[in-house]
Amino acid sequence: MPHASELIQAVEYQEIQKLTDQRPDLQIGDTVNVNVKIVEGNRERIQVFQGVVIAMRGHGVNKAFSVRRVAAHGIGVERTFLFYSPRVESIKVLRHAKVRRAKLYFLRDRSGKSARLKERRMTV
Questions:
Q1: Which of 35, 44, 79, 123 has its CA 20 to 30 A from that of 89?
Q2: Which helix (H) or strand (E) holds 66?
Q3: Helices in the chain by DSSP H: which ranges?
């Protein structure tokens, strides 16, 4: 008889397999458009959050990623999304960047040209 944790892992694996075909392969440094469902009273709308993926954590169903963008007047806004959340309608990768570390928290202290990341060209 399988152990309880093995059953949970099997169910999680099946859930991820269903959702994986809808989600792109995200990497640190990617510029992404995240379409998020926002519920206001009895109305639902889609809000687009565009920014750079600065961190990823967790694995399996609990996988999450943080996106940073610069809003009006140079104010940095960071938001963390669960990768398989039903509120995240879609994720679109706009460009890939060449990065050398797992977390890009140093971008918080930078502004202007020093906050730019070099684009990584994909070979076909």
A1: 123
A2: strand 64-70
A3: 4-20
